[in-house]
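Students often ask why inverse folding is considered easier than folding. One informal answer: many sequences map to the same fold, so there is more than one right answer. In these notes we will look at a single instance of the problem. The structure comes first.
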């Protein structure tokens, strides 16, 4: 059964779940688009989601989120409510899809180009007396990134930019003539003369026959329908009696600690001081001066007449150093000199001052957190087991009451609801189940009367089944019940049709004679009204509609057309059409830019949509809501 396989997945996933103990897991989770729940679509408890082959791990995404929000002074919970967390994740997904597409196409950026890009990024922040390295260190500190992470990020961004630029380049071909013509088109104004003919002027309508009312009823029948409704019972697997019964033995705790020792360990490190020089010549000179000078700091000062290129000793893990440096540093002995070595940041000369042995958090320090996490995993396993038992009981013919004696469940019977979750009075019955609304309605309208659905995992991390108790088919009011309303509708329609036919005949008369619109209006006891300088881009003046404006601005000068109004119909004659006398170069340039941007955006969106379908995107919304959504205390 599906629930059994999910339970097995939960059991196998315990190691990944336990790893979260070192990540300030708060309320439990991470992130965003269309997939909720545990172990779905190839993502685990510690994965926020996946875009193609790239998975987003909780620690990496959380660091990105908090680094970004710190810069704007916003708390994660507020950002979640405003949708910023979703947008940040979507940005990561777009970047991952572009990166994979760029790699597949063989788009790579050379180290020299990366170095130039980093130099260009740093240059605006340079101040007198500060070296590029000092500025870079400040940037890394503010971003919470290592040099390696920063260089990799820049490299990826440059590759993605090359690909996206090539994609949108075809959408930027907007000529000056096109921009100018569209700008003039939108700013056109017209003077018109209008004769209004209201539907209410039509009198002496004949009474509708029974056949005519029946025909109108058939056309409008859906307006008199009462939708199908279903009486539903919601069944929730209850965990209230489980939480206090789960124990974790000392042996289990220690076994879990040993199995996941990497989560509580810090790898060996090297204490390294270094100098980053702008040229190979300087780096060679510093390296040669190192022994006589006695220290790297003094060697830098001797060669450059300053200390700004020198970086005091810092502790580094291997993956915290640039790839060109890391292997050399960790292969060196204590006191060894390394370099010069070229990286994207410049020329490095390094001294390995000390080795720092690996360390790990003792068992007692992590015991409480570990116990809490194992209890949560076991609770989840037991919930899966309860769900399986309930499914088996119901599948074996048990009633809901009989199943409740074997499995701890809560039931809630809802009044008859339509497929929008509303009762007969239009009240939203599922207001308190907003997160699970789609799941409940989709399930309730898929199964037959008397059936109970399999237990499903909900968007909020619980387990629920739906039982359909009764189905009230869609019904219609009889013709006799709505005859009065139908008569009024028939009269309204007949007046409008008759008036439209009358106005069409009047227009034909105007077009076949030499009468002016004003003369014709006077002959019919009407007065022609003038509307001057109406503009295509403006909100239509009453009683005209946007559709009427489209017809008016599509008519030739001195031509007459019929338009519908809120009260009936009108004959409109275009007296004058005026385009802007002069082109506003600033407006034309802005129009050209907007047109190009729109074309580029649409082109890139179509490309990204294709890549999303090609590579696949999966996101764990439950996990996101648990970590960044409102806490119970704030609700």
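Output (designed amino acids):
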């Amino acid at each position: 059964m599906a629930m059994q396989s999910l339970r097995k997945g939960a059991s196998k996933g315990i190691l990944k779940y336990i790893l979260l103990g070192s990540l300030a897991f708060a309320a439990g989770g991470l992130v965003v688009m269309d997939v909720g729940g545990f172990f779905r679509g190839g993502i685990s408890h510690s994965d926020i989601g996946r875009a193609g082959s790239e998975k987003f791990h909780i620690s990496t995404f959380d660091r990105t989120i908090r680094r970004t929000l710190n810069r704007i002074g916003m708390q994660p919970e507020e950002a979640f409510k405003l949708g910023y967390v979703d947008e940040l994740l979507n940005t990561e997904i777009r970047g991952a899809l572009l990166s994979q597409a760029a790699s597949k196409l063989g788009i790579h950026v050379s180290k020299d180009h990366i170095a130039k890009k980093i130099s260009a990024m740093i240059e605006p922040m340079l101040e007198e007396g500060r070296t590029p390295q000092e500025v870079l260190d400040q940037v890394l500190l503010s971003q919470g990134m290592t040099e390696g992470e920063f260089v990799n990020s820049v490299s990826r961004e440059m590759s993605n930019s090359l690909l996206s630029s090539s994609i949108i380049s075809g959408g930027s071909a907007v000529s000056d003539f096109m921009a100018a013509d569209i700008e003039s088109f939108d700013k056109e104004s017209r003077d018109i003369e209008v004769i209004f003919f209201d539907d209410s002027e039509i009198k002496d309508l004949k009474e509708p026959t029974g056949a005519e009312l029946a025909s109108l009823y058939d056309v409008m029948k859906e307006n008199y329908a009462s939708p199908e409704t279903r009486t539903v019972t919601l069944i929730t697997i209850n965990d209230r009696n489980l939480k206090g019964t789960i124990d974790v033995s000392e042996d289990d705790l220690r076994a879990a600690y040993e199995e996941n020792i990497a989560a509580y360990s810090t790898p060996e490190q090297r204490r390294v001081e270094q100098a980053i020089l702008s040229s190979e010549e300087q780096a060679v000179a510093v390296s040669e001066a190192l022994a006589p000078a006695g220290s790297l700091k003094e060697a830098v000062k001797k060669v450059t007449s300053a200390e700004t290129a020198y970086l005091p000793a810092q502790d580094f893990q291997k993956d915290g150093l640039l790839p060109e440096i890391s292997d050399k540093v960790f292969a060196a002995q204590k006191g060894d000199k390394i370099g010069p070595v070229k990286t994207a940041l410049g020329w490095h000369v390094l001294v390995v001052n000390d080795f720092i042995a690996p360390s790990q958090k003792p068992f007692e320090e992590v015991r409480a957190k570990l116990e809490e996490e194992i209890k949560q995993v076991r609770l989840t396993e037991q919930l899966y087991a309860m769900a399986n038992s309930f499914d088996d009981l119901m599948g074996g013919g048990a009633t809901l009451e009989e199943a409740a004696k074997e499995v701890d469940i809560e039931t809630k019977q809802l009044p008859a609801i339509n497929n929008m979750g509303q009762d007969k009075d239009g009240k939203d019955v599922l207001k308190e189940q907003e997160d699970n609304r789609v799941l409940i309605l989709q399930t309730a309208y898929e199964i037959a009367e008397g059936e109970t659905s399999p237990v499903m995992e909900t968007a909020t991390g619980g387990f629920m089944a739906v039982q359909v108790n009764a189905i009230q088919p869609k019904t219609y009011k009889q013709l006799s019940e709505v005859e009065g309303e139908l008569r009024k509708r028939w009269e309204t329609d007949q007046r409008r049709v008759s008036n439209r036919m009358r106005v069409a005949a009047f227009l034909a008369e105007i077009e076949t004679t030499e009468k002016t619109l004003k003369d014709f209006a006077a002959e019919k006891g009407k007065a022609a009204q003038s509307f001057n300088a109406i503009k295509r881009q403006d909100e239509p003046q009453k009683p005209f509609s946007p559709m009427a404006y489209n017809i008016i601005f599509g008519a030739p000068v001195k031509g007459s057309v019929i338009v519908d109004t809120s009260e009936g119909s009108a004959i409109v004659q275009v007296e004058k059409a005026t385009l802007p006398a002069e082109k506003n170069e600033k407006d034309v340039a802005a129009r050209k830019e907007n047109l190009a941007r729109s074309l580029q955006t649409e082109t890139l969106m179509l490309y990204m949509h294709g890549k999303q379908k090609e590579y696949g995107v999966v996101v764990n919304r439950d996990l996101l809501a648990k970590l960044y959504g409102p806490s119970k205390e704030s609700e």
